[in-house]
Prior knowledge:
Strand content: under 5%
Largest sheet: none
Oligomer: single chain
Structural class: mainly alpha
Radius of gyration: 17 Å
Shape: globular
Low-confidence stretches: none
Mean pLDDT: 85
Number of strands: 0
Amino acid sequence: MYVTPGPNNAMVLTSGLKFGFFKSIPHIIGITIGHVTQLILVCFGLGRIFILFPLLQDILKILCAIYLLYLGYKIIGSFNKINQDGSRPLKFHEAALFQIVNPKAWTISSMAASSFLPKDGNLSLSILFISFVALVICPISISPWAAFGSAIKNLVNNNLIKVIIEYFLAFLLLITAILIVINK
């Protein structure tokens, strides 16, 4: 599921496009560490909070949608402002903390916990194994998005194409935000 489109991948694609692959690596590592931390917490029982308090999940969805709308707004006009407005790729800790409001990351964590944790047996060893697999698969799945953004960066010299890409990426974030809020 890590490679499928979602908030992290849209942000990493944009980062690769704006700043290049290597400057996007802290973003990728932040997503990975943030998600693995989230996965461990869910495996140890944090996911039950959503069952006990479904309103909390709705609040997280709304916060995520608001943040995605903000990111979409920031993308528009940003490609021509690189190095002019102090724009920079997301830092490690910013990408890690984003996982708190990322519903796709919560979904992946919940699905992994419910699918792969044993009903009986060594819970800690199972969580360690699941976390290790996520630690390996997550950056391998997210990196191609940054690489693709970086690869087309050199092709995007025309200002009209830059504007079209900016609006397209912002539109994708808008659609994602809407789908997050309306899907139950």
